[in-house]
Every structure is written in C-alpha cells, then in structure tokens.
Specification:
2 domains, globular, 15 strands, Rossmann fold, 4-stranded antiparallel β-sheet, alpha/beta, single chain, 7-stranded mixed β-sheet, Vcp-like ATPase, Chain A, domain 2
Length: about 350
C-alpha cells in the first residue's frame, strides 16, 4: 500500500500494485478496480490496461483502447463504503459524519459500536479515534461480522491493532469484553454508538460502560423506535434529556447561470438520538414544559417491539456470496481478512440487541 495517513487507509504518491483506483468515464460511469500487474479493465466501449495506471500520479487521465479518456483517482472513504460488498444496508456518509460530530469522537477515544453490519460506520469510527484510540465493535450475526472484518481489512491493508470485533448480544458481550481487558472496565468507555432494532434494551449495559459525561448516540429507522428509545432513556434516568435529529442532503446543479437544486436528493435514511451519561446518583432536571402526548399503554408498546417493526432477513445464500466478495476484495489489496481478529464472545440466543437496525 502507498504511504498515507496512519490508520485511515488513505494514500499518496503514484499508483502501485494493490491500490484501489476509481475510474470515471466520459458518460459519468464510475468503476473501482484493484491494480494488478498485467491486469485489464474492460467495458463494451474499450479497455484500459492496469500497467497504464501503475506508476502514474493520483488524479491522472488515461486513454482507453477506443480513445475514451478516463479520470483515475484513489477512492475517498465515502467512495469506498458506497462501493464495498455489503450484507446489510450501510450507514450513509451523511449520517456517519453526523454521528462523529454528535458523539464528539476524538483521537485517542475509547468507543463502542453495536450493530456493525457491513462495517461502513466502523471505518469512519476507526478514522475518528486514530491509531491511539480503541474501537470495540459488537455484531450479533457471524456473517455480518465476517463481511465487516474483510471490508475493514481491505481498506486498511489488514485488521487494525486497535480494533476488536465481537460476535454476540451487547448486553453480554460488552461487560465480558470490558472485564477481559486489563486496560478497560466499567466506566472506561468515552462514546457508544448503537445501530440496532431495539437500543432501549441495552441502556443498562451502556450506562455501566460509559464514563460520566460520555456520549451515547442511537441510529434508528422509524419514529416509533425513536420515541420508545427516548422514553426509555428518560424512564431509566442517569442520562441527559435526549436530543433527536435527521440529516437531509440536497445537491445543486452548477452550469454557468443555470444554478438550481438537483432533481434528486438523499433525504431520510434514519434518525439520530444523542444523550450524555450523568455522574452516579445524579438525575437530569425535568424540562420546564413537556409535550401533551407523553402517555402510552401496553398496546402502544407492542407496536414498538422488534417483531412488529419487522426485520428483513437476508438469505443464507446471499450472505455467503457477500462474505466471499468482501474477502476477495481484502485479498486483492494484499490483506488477510482474518488476521489479528479479536476472540468472539458467544451470542445470546434469540436476542435482537446486537443486530444492526439500519446497517453499519
């Protein structure tokens, strides 16, 4: 891999064998390839030899066999996560940026994420904590963990030493992981990010792990999930009043004097809820005013259960294919997907808590 920012997967200098390269064609089509000596990239409109790219600077233009000119760039992290193999829906870059900001992820932080999915948010968090920080990731489904491990290895050229990936239910896996690490323990985690179907089930484990002043961010898909999570945080106590938001991104068309919003935009993908851990024994002051619709009954709670909300299972055949694709991508970049992987914590039976809600 070419030299670049430590721990980020970024690179500088001429293209080398094993580098990922993003090719943009004359019609706006984008393709990502891994450079190999003697390799070839072809479309129905022509062919580009990998040897044309190896050794030339990032940001160069190469000519295909039919005369078309293609722009060659190293993919940004946002490009990589949008193109990498995925078993679960990913956290989009617009939401990942907001999560890093809302959670106030900083270099050297100890961060826990649950609901790893395909590893998109994992890559952003690893960049945020830097080589001096720690990231503990928990995923209930083994196949999702395999995909995430391979995608991270492909981006970093191997499994980062400061990343631990556990398979299991957060309520069991997180306390076990903290107890097993002599550098960690209750109250040692700076930030927690939950991307799962029922984050309200994990509040006790999260509260025990977070240091006073630590930040919890939950990423949920629906208004009912958002409401139940907020009410569960208020009912439990020990946290500040939760704040919720969503992020909508609208691009603009720029062509001379024709300046207008794009016809399409990336609108709702999920809700973000942020709260902070209070010191032991401290309760947040009650807000001066509360909305009128704060009461709910058992029938309302039933509508918020994971079964009622629905979960779209992926077929075993599709998951096996995505795992193969992710591991192939890692090997093409010279990384070994399984190298340095942390020991797994056994999963709890039938619990949705460690599973991805929207996908990682």
């Amino acid at each position: 891999m070419s030299a670049g920012e430590p721990g980020s997967g970024a690179a500088r200098g001429p293209f080398r064998v094993g580098d990922r390269v993003q090719l943009s064609g004359p019609r706006g089509k984008v393709h990502s390839i891994t450079l190999a000596a003697g390799g070839r990239f072809g479309t129905h409109r022509g062919e580009i030899r990998h040897d044309q790219l190896i050794g030339i600077p990032d940001g160069s233009v190469v000519e295909a066999s039919n005369g078309d000119r293609w722009l060659a760039l190293r993919p940004l992290l946002s490009d990589f996560v949008m193109a990498m193999p995925r078993g679960a829906a990913i956290v989009y870059p617009k939401d990942a940026a907001q999560i890093l900001q809302l959670a106030d992820v900083f270099p050297g932080a100890t961060v826990v994420e649950a609901g790893v999915g395909s590893g998109a948010l994992t890559l952003w968090l690893l960049r945020g904590v830097g080589p001096e920080g720690r990231l503990l990731s928990i995923e209930r489904r083994d196949e999702f963990a395999d995909i995430a491990r391979a995608n991270v290895a492909a981006r970093h050229g191997g499994v980062p030493a400061n990343w631990s990936l556990y398979a299991g239910d957060l309520r069991e896996a997180l306390p076990a992981a903290l107890d097993a690490d002599p550098q960690l323990g209750p109250g040692s985690v700076d930030r927690v990010v939950l991307d799962m179907l029922a984050p309200w089930e994990c509040l006790d484990a999260v509260a025990d792990a977070l240091a006073p002043g630590g930040v919890l961010v939950c990423y949920v898909a629906t208004v009912t999930q958002l409401s139940r999570t907020a009410e569960a945080i208020r009912a439990r106590g020990g946290f500040t009043q939760p704040q919720a938001s969503e992020t909508l991104v609208r691009g603009w068309h720029l062509d001379g004097l024709a300046v207008r919003p794009d016809h399409r935009m990336v609108a709702h993908t999920g809700f973000l809820l942020q709260t902070r851990r209070l010191a032991p024994g401290v309760e947040a002051p009650e807000p001066a005013r509360r909305g009128s619709k704060t009461e709910y009954g058992e029938e309302d709670v039933e509508l918020w259960t994971p079964g009622a909300l629905g979960e779209r299972p992926k077929s075993d055949k599709r998951m096996r294919r995505v795992v193969r694709d992710a591991e192939k991508l890692a090997r093409e970049t010279g990384a070994e997907p399984g190298a340095g992987a942390a020991p797994e914590v056994p999963a709890g039976e039938g619990s949705p808590s460690g599973d991805a809600g929207l996908g990682g």
